[in-house]
Amino acid sequence: MKIGISVDNHFDVNHEDGQERLKQQAAYLVAHDYQYYLNAGDTYNDFGKTLAYFQSLQRELGSAVTVRFLAGNHDLVNGISYAEAQSDLDLLYFHEKSLAIPGTNAVLVGNNGWYDYSLSELGTSKTDAEYAQWKRAFWIDRGIDQPVSDRERMQRVLTTTEAALNANAGRQVVYITHFVPDRSFLVYGIDRPYWQMATALMGSQALGDLLGRHAVSQVAFGHLHFRDRPRLLNGGVYYHQPLGYGNKRLFEWKSHDWLTEWQNTLVTVNIPAEK
């Protein structure tokens, strides 16, 4: 089985028409024999648009490719409440869900993820209240509906992830999330005060530790907008290949074409048939 995983497509920020691009994406996935396509979040700055896009992509692909998606922080800014984000609101929405791959010993496990300030460059020199205040003042996540604290939201991620891993013990787990699960992927810089605070909102080391204890085989994530080679970590392979921004304000691409960037950052995981 051939699985494709993408993240940080940012159609609206990149001024791309997702409904037009999905026809090209569908053709590529079918031509290259993918059976599953997973997206790890940040598709639009509006969950309603994100959902409509993936529903259209699944219709375009028909039964040839199974589509699932997660919500990154951008997707959660508009068009969805906290309660809805934690619910089973659509078949394609893969948060807190698992999907066994027929004919193999593998299972896909999805979780949006969140953060608990543990990846912060400033560590405990700042309090939770200071991180939360900075987020409300400067970070896009201030628009996200959230009746609980960041630590409480992250604790739910850990609890539901561990339950899924326990339920699939002994299987090859491919774990997909949006936020960063390990400190080793962070780039720190004491000369950038804004980024020093932003690192607190990148993810959680507790998630990486949990995945390591359960010997998860493959982990794919985004959010950080740096591209890394596949990395062996805690006995598993970690993939971090976000598409990112390609606009005048912030240009992170290698080319000047969205489709080329999507193809070049598409992570491929091959799952062998069970003997």
Automatic annotation (TrEMBL):
InterPro entries: Calcineurin-like_PHP, Metallo-depent_PP-like, Phosphoesterase_putative. Signal peptide: none annotated. Coiled coil: none annotated. Residues 8-225 form the Calcineurin-like phosphoesterase domain. Keywords: Hydrolase. The keyword Hydrolase applies. It comes from the Bacteria. Gene3D superfamilies: 3.60.21.10. The keyword Hydrolase applies. One of its GO terms (molecular function) is hydrolase activity. This is Phosphohydrolase. It comes from Lacticaseibacillus brantae DSM 23927.
